[in-house]
Amino acid sequence: MAHPADRKYTKDHEWIRLSGDTAEVGITDYAQKTLGDVVFIDLPAVGASVAAGAAFGTIESVKAVSELFAPVSGTVIEVNAYLKEHPERVNSAPHETWLIKLRVPDTAAVSALLDGAEYDAILT
To answer: Do residues 28 and 14 lie in contact, with contact meaning Cβ atoms separated by under 8 Å?
Structure first.
């Protein structure tokens, strides 16, 4: 599967799309397929600090509970409130559904992540 070229990816199957110093973070199609039907997502509060590689929340499916890992460090400036009532949205549109928005002080850190082709390569 070709992954959108307008974002970067982690080996933990999160994606990040940067616009200025603001980043949207979500999970990849591979992640949602592996999880199965998502039934609950626990996300941090606005204002919370997240560290690159550290867990910032959990995603629960009918099969398992998995941690969500921050692709870069930053401060949570928005949480996708729609997902509180409709967590299954990540199954139907994983690359269109962001989980959190971060203010990213070190935007250069994003360039160190995987591009779509590199991410595809780790899936094969």
So the answer is: yes
